[in-house]
Amino acid sequence: MTIDKLKVGQLYKSSATISEEVIEHFAQATGDHNPIHLNEDYAKGTIFKKRVAHGMLQAGILSGVLGTRFPGLGTIYLSQTLKFLKPVFIGDEITFRLRVLELFKEKSRVRLETVCINQRGEIVLTGEALVMIPA
């Protein structure tokens, strides 16, 4: 998608289910083997009472959405802010909602609101991204 096809306020949504396998692959890829993510017995003794997904897993999926679906192929991440609001558990379906906040046409850059929402309608992550899209 080119910058001329984007409009301030434009929305994009996609969803993904957070599975045990996805969490395990993310742990392998990042080296984050914190037992809160991988060990049910350990997680039972925490504030969450069960395993939680890595917060950065949602951010990683968001990166994939930005770079391949919206704005699309070839998009380059320039910056991202993140605020983790609620835990994400195995089996949660997360909706990734992107909204165009600002366009910088001369530099092919887009500022986006990034929000992740679980199947209960709870916002689990918020932030803003600045990306550069192919001309």
Your description of this structure?
- With 135 residues, this protein is of the alpha+beta class.
- It has a single domain (3-18, 53-132), classed as Hotdog Thioesterase (Thiol Ester Dehydrase, Chain A, Roll).
- It is built from four helices and six strands; from the N terminus they run E-H-H-H-H-E-E-E-E-E.
- The protein has helices spanning 20-30, 35-38, 40-44, 55-68; strands at 11-17, 76-80, 83-84, 93-104, 109-117, 123-132.
- Strands 1, 2, 3, 4, 5 and 6 form a six-stranded antiparallel beta sheet that branches.
- Strand 5 (109-117) and strand 6 form a beta hairpin.
- The longest helix is centred in the middle third of the chain and has 14 residues, at 55-68.
- It is elongated.
What are the defining features of this structure?
single chain, 135 residues, alpha+beta, Thiol Ester Dehydrase, Chain A, 6-stranded antiparallel beta sheet, 6 strands
